[in-house]
Amino acid sequence: MTSAQQAVSRQVMLQNQHIMGWGVENPEPAPGMYDFSDLDSRMGFIRESGGIPIITLCCAPDWMKGGTAGETDWNELTTAPLPEHYADFADLSAVIARRYPDVRHFMVWNEFKGFFDEATKQWKAREYTDLYNQVYDAIKAVNPDNRVGGPYIGMATTSPDIATTASTLSGPWGSVDQRALETLDYWLANKRGADFVVVDGLATRAGGAGDEFAALGKLSAVSRWVRERTALPLWWAEWHVEPAESGWTDRRQIALRTAAMITMATSGVNTALYWNPSPASEGCAPCLWTDTRDEDGGRPLPLLSTLQEFARWFPPGTPLEEVPAPPEVRVLSQPRRVVAVNTVNSEVTVQLDGRAVRLGPYETRWITRERE
Q: How many whole angstroms separate alpha carbon 30 and alpha carbon 61?
């Protein structure tokens, strides 16, 4: 077992894999000609590390989107399949579901890639839902216990003063693009069925929030908005909270991501998947392990431990308890374990179960509760 596998295997966690792209070759280069070598390898890693596998049914082979059978143009990876090939993509999805019978959760497509109409500047909600419905039927036909979700729409932030795209779902962090909200509403009304609903998005200062921690309010606002419309479990397939090249310290970067997970946990989110960046250096705070291409690569980094702590102590359905804290501190608590995050660059003291806990600047602290 590699170092990365050993590190991941310390706690059972969800692991997601796309069927094409992101390290996996074309699974069906020509009709009926399959190549699952890369996907098999990735699924093998998940099994060997004790993970719970998830498959994202994206993207489509070239011949399904107007390309030449037997060829793969990676520049066209995010092109959507043509409507006349929706059934072919559904068939491929079923083949994959049969090949990996231990997989129970499937997300259909990714961020509406290829489903944007440049002429009307609108998302192609009807076309995506047509594809989704055919894939849903195919996956359920393989095993009714399979869980299928969508629409995996990006909840983009727009400036509140842009009337053409701004919505009433807004706050100090900005306004969610009305087109994304309409798309999700259309899918909810016209889907054949679903076992969970999937969204993603950025929550950064770009929308107008005063600081990066205030921007996390978008995560809770979107989650509440979805909750008002459906009782389906809510998944955030992606959540990005830091601008590129922020220059922040490792401690600040980890604090921000921990605060984001606290925000989602307290907003009724059932599942939050984390996209592990490719480590460019030893000091990659958002990364989970060091570069596996290095001789001593695959060593765990601090954020992996953070995710594992969340998976261990705060799985869906965990009863949460309120802990008084100053506004600078984000806290998530259950009867046995607490995580506290200082969101400012100065020391802060929190009272927990009758004792004072001092947090350094941007410190994240996991605390075992001591009760009489």
A: 8
Q: Among 31-45, 87-101, 245-259, 272-286, whose mean pLDDT is lowest?
A: 272-286
**Structure-block tokens of residue 125:** 């909600």
Contact 316, 267 (CB under 8 A): no
Looking at residue 161, its pLDDT comes to 61
For residue 244, name the pLDDT band (cuts at 50, 70, 90).
confident
Whether the predicted pLDDT of 153 surpasses 70: yes
User: How far is it, in rounded angstroms, from Cα 327 to Cα 69?
Assistant: 58
Structure tokens at 278: 């490719």
- List, edge to edge, every strand of the sheet that includes 337-342: 329-333, 337-342, 364-368
Degrees to nearest 5, angle at CA 58 with 53 and 64: 140
Amino acid at 52: I
Q: How far is the C-alpha of 7 from the C-alpha of 304, rounded, in Å?
A: 8
Kind of pairing between the strands at 14-18 and 52-57: parallel
d(CA 357, CA 351): 6
Is the overall model pTM greater than 0.90, yes or no?
Answer: yes
Distances 164 to 156, 161, 170 between C-alpha atoms, Å: 14, 9, 14
User: What is d(CA 26, CA 74) in angstroms, rounded to the nearest whole number?
Assistant: 9
3 state SS of 141 = helix
